[in-house]
Write a structure and sequence with these properties.
alpha+beta; globular; 2 helices; YaeB-like fold
Amino acid sequence: MAVIRWTTESEIWLRDIHKYISQDNPSAAARVVKSIYDKVQILRDLPEIGYKYRTEKEGEIRILLYGHYRIAYLIRVTDQIDVLGVFHGSLDIESYL
């Protein structure tokens, strides 16, 4: 079972998503953030479930889809998964990774 670590950047992305949605609907914002968090927990047992984005010296960067969002994560060789960011589908992910 892999260990999941949220990077500072990914926590900021999640906080920004919550802030944006909560402007119109605070309860929906909480549900979306919780659902994203829950989706990431699947990676503990199925780390390769997302599609391969590219390979780095540290490991593979993969993308897990959830609704309108792309969850970018790095599978390290040491059974650790680093969540790199949570990006809206309309963003150019290449400029962030």
